[in-house]
Design brief:
Order of helices and strands: HEEEEHHHHHHEHHHEEEEE
CATH architecture: Alpha-Beta Complex
Distance between the termini: 41 Å
Strand order of the largest sheet: 3-4-10-5
Number of strands: 10
CATH class: Alpha Beta
Radius of gyration: 18 Å
Length: 267
């Protein structure tokens, strides 16, 4: 399996005050959220999309590099590729796995087929990886970010409260620019396999024009911090209208189930 370890810069962004991906979580303290998240209140920021194949791939490759291909750290976090066959019917699980690691075909696909434990592991890794990136910063730039923070799964109540977020037009434009940047980088319009699915769409396909968030009700349902409880609509159970209280239950990884993270400012 040929793999290349991408730089974490592309996942988190080494933010500065001039970075368009930076969003201030608290105007008084002037703390920034992590890249590609939006502020919900003074201490919580939400991913603008579901966790993508690209983001999860960086996690897996980091485990591979640090622990080896036969390590528990790597193998225990691999998704159930068989479930991906439900979404991309032209390919087998083995072919999907190969494309996932060796190409950018699924870079902007919603990450499905993962368990609750794997999602929690990803969030914990993301916290440590971001901390390492911030430690490399100039001291003055580092002060723009909170001293203590964590990425984690949102509670059902936090997920539901996303409906109260409101973005100004300028912020919506900035979020739109972020989406376009990724779409161009990964050539979404030429990605026949990604666009072939009749069930899911790529993570930047549909934006809520009030919230500035993508894929909330018609792509994949999203895991929460309560094991077995997911929020939002999915291709398997679409809502007639935006329903932020819609819950689903699960006991194992699913092709209709993904997740997004909360970035919580602790101090």
């Amino acid at each position: 399996m040929k793999v290349v370890l991408p730089l974490l810069f592309f996942l988190f962004g080494l933010n500065s005050s001039s970075d368009s991906n930076c969003v201030k979580c608290d105007q008084d303290r002037k703390y920034y959220c992590a890249s590609n998240t939006l502020a919900m209140n003074f201490r919580l920021c939400m991913d603008i999309t579901e966790v993508s194949g690209r983001m999860y791939k960086i996690f897996l490759l980091d485990q591979l590099k640090a622990h080896g291909a036969t390590s528990t750290e790597f193998t225990s976090n691999l998704p159930n590729w068989k479930l991906w066959e439900e979404l991309y019917t032209q390919k087998t699980a083995s072919e999907i796995s190969e494309l996932f690691f060796e190409t950018s075909t699924f870079a902007l696909a919603p990450m499905v087929g993962v368990s609750y434990e794997q999602a929690v592991n990803f969030a914990a890794w993301r916290t440590e990886a971001f901390r390492k990136e911030l430690d490399k910063m100039d001291k003055r730039d580092r002060e723009n970010f909170p001293k203590e923070f964590e990425f984690r799964l949102p509670t059902p109540a936090e997920w539901s409260r996303m409906r109260f977020m409101t973005q100004e037009k300028e912020m919506l434009k900035e979020v739109g620019k972020i989406a376009v940047t990724y779409e161009k980088e990964f050539k979404v319009d030429r990605n026949k396999l990604l666009n072939s699915s009749k069930k899911v769409h790529y993570i930047f396909a549909n934006m809520d024009k009030k919230l500035g968030l993508f894929g909330l009700h018609d792509n994949v349902a999203e895991m929460t911090s309560e094991k077995g409880v997911a929020m939002g609509g999915s291709w398997n159970s679409k809502s007639a209208q935006a329903d932020f209280t819609k819950k689903s239950e699960y006991t194992a990884p699913q092709a209709w189930l993904g997740f997004r993270c909360i970035f919580e400012i602790i101090e």
